[in-house]
Amino acid sequence: MPKVLYNKYRSADFDQVIGQEHITKILKNAVRSNKIAHAYLFVGSRGTGKTSTARILAKALNCQKLSSEGNPCCECEPCLAITQGRFLDLIEIDAASNRGIDQIRELKEKLEFSPVEGKYKIYIVDEVHMLTKEAFNALLKTLEEPPAHVIFILATTDVHKLPPTILSRCQRYDFRLGSEAEIGDVLSNVAKNEGVKMEEGALKVLIENAHGSFRDGLSLLDVVVSGQLNSEKPEVVTEAEVRKILGIPDETMVYHLLENLVKGHGGKVLELVEELESKGVNLHQFIKYSLITLETILIRKIKNEWKNDEYSFANHLNSVEVNSLINIFLAAEKNLRNAVIPSLIIEMLIPQVSSLNNVVVHKTEQVDISVSQKAKPQATESKKNVAKVTEAQEETEEEDSDGHSNKDISFEQITKEWNKVIEGIRPANGHLFAFLGGAKLLDFVNSCLRLEVPFEFHKDRIETPNSRESIRKVVKDVFGTSFKVECVVNGQVKRKKQVSADVILQNAPSKGNSTRPVEVGPRKVSKKIEAIFAGM
To answer: 375 with 384: CB under 8 angstroms?
Structure first.
């Protein structure tokens, strides 16, 4: 029976273990100098070489022709017996299946027997974190003072589940995930040895889905090599074949889903879901690739490395909005695990994304770029202000399509009627009402009203697209026309701790939209509200 690839190409000595040189170097030196610990703990993600390294260590400890570097010869009888799985003094235990105290007691009873074939009796306990509390307690004394001929090698993917008493009795070695280059080298070499040619795109997809696990990468390669479909040249693996065999979505479909979700094209999203089902695309993979795309977008937004020609649907999303999308997709990925109707989870993304406060339908048509971003750098500050006011006037005049002019409005009139604007905002947006109530009117020049606010946070919230639209509607109702509102931060105002919440809540709407001020005292402000405004 042919071996699966990850068994066929399992590392035979320390030098063949890829990506764990920080561990294998120490183990070789320990074996060479005969400084052997009585218990080892191998920690790391699946497929990183924990079990392979444990078997190599067992070979090195029992090898009859150990190399000068500390590597097993892989030719003597103990080495061959361990490789072939017939060495009586190597006992491998799956703790997931043998996790009870009875199994540990049975193990302890056999410890006193001397090795049959080799110098040491090696116990490899895989997934040791699965042992019960009672089993751990039974194992403690043995780990601390085992017989001289016994060595324990414990392996786990969840080291945080191990009791501190176990950790303190072992030499710990942490295995790292393989890099993309390391995974790529392994897959390329194995494919070459198997007589299979990999297209660059196909190899890239396999590397991405290995997630740093050498074993997972080889398992995927095994599936692809043995399951190519409709290929005129079976010895050549194409990217399309890899995606089809593994149920991995095309990047274009991921792009179209995100684009139509952000733009609010629910009908097109539903059509895409139908296409995914008809093609048999793995929806878990689809959500995962969507998250990878959103992660790329978020990183570029944060690092200010955004390119408008790529992922153009996200041109007008800020990092906060992208973060909200990521949270929605993370919840969808979690719900997919136990979903009765998986496609429904994707369809539910439509109203969830549409309900985001800062992701507006057809946002590309409603984008409202702040004046400070539009203004071009000038030689003096006065020129900057002139450019800002000019552009603000142009934007405002585009909004006024009913023939009313805002040129006849005076600053005194706005000052007199401004409370009506604030009260008009109250029913729709309590936070915006509070922020405007704490702002100071500075001046009104060329159809642009400037407000002074104490903190940058206030400016950011007042100038969001949703806030601007709310202000525009209320201003239109009060004055019969609309004008631009711009915020200026008063840099002289010092931040306060906790008190800021009291100040803002005094202007916040009370229950039932009553105009009576809210009674706020140090003991009456909820901890939740304090937490929201603590950073202001």
So the answer is: yes
Residue finishing a domain among 130, 153, 174: 174
Residue ranges making up the domain that contains 16: 5-174
Tell whether 230 is covered by a domain. yes
Check whether residue 295 and residue 410 sit in a common domain: no
Give CA torsion, residues 184, 189, 195, 196, to 10 deg: 0
The reply to whether 10 and 130 lie within a common domain is yes
Comparing CA positions, the residue from 439, 432, 453 lying closest to residue 508 is: 432
440 sits in which H/E element: strand 440-445
For position 132, which CATH number holds?
A: 3.40.50.300
pTM for the full predicted model: 0.58
Q: Does 418 fall in a domain?
A: yes
Q: Which of 166-180, 238-252, 277-291, 457-471 has the lowest mean pLDDT?
A: 238-252
Q: Is the separation of the CB atoms in 83 and 52 below 8 Å?
A: no
Q: Give the start-end residues of each E strand in 68-199.
A: 90-94, 121-126, 150-156, 171-174, 197-198
Transcribe 167-220 into DSSP letters: HTTSEEEEPPPPPHHHHHHHHHHHHHHTT-EE-HHHHHHHHHHHTT-HHHHHHH
Q: How far is 425 from 88, CA to CA, in rounded Å?
A: 80
Q: Quick: pLDDT tens for 177-202.
A: 999 999 999 999 998 888 888 888 88
Please state, in angstroms and rounded to a whole number, the distance separating the CA atoms of residues 416 and 422.
12
Same domain, yes or no, for 332 and 395? no
Task: Show which of 120, 153, 174 is a domain's final residue.
Answer: 174
Domain count for the chain, please give it: 4
Q: Lay out the sheet containing 171-174: strands in order across.
A: 90-94, 121-126, 150-156, 39-43, 171-174
DSSP code, position 16: G
